[in-house]
Amino acid sequence: MKKHFLKLAICFLALLGPGAALAHDFKIGEIEIGHPYARAMLPGAKVGGGYLELTNHGGADRLVSVSSDRAASVQIHEMKMDGGIMEMRELKDGIAVPADTTVELKPGGYHLMFMNVAQPFKEGEMVKATLTFEKAGSVDVELMVGPPAGGAPDMKHDEAEHGDSAK
């Protein structure tokens, strides 16, 4: 009985482990894309936000464009304070990803804006997108959709599987 249980547990971990590890981390060349997520949208909303981390272990690069079949277009945006007023603007030239750095796309800073979304993002689903870098090329990613207000979906279990729990 113990042997049967052990074999079953090993098979289960073999199936779960790699899939779970890849579910929120993607890589192209020397650039790692960590924990991409989007916020759920309210019914009838046409614009959604996306967030992720870009860690560059190589030479300088630039995120130049993003596309998704879930939106007519995806823009790269920056939010910042200017004289006590929050401003948001599209970064038509993309975002620089300097060598040996991590650039965060997060609420209140750099982020992705999914424009003219036909079906609002629902909590718990995955949204596919393609990130295109000037030098590294293009990579397909999936953004996990979390709550409409608040931060990233609960990914604590993923961090433990990645060995990142000490962060």
UniProtKB/TrEMBL annotation:
InterPro entries for this protein: LpqE-like, Lxx211020-like, PCuAC_sf
Residues annotated as signal peptide: 1-23
Region (Disordered): 145-167
TM annotation in the entry: none
Superkingdom as given in the UniProt entry: Bacteria
Regions of compositional bias (Basic and acidic residues) in chain numbering: 154-167
Gene3D superfamilies, per the entry: PCu(A)C copper chaperone
Alphabetic keyword roster: Signal
Entry-linked PANTHER family: BLR7088 PROTEIN, COPPER CHAPERONE PCU(A)C
Protein name in UniProt: Copper chaperone PCu(A)C
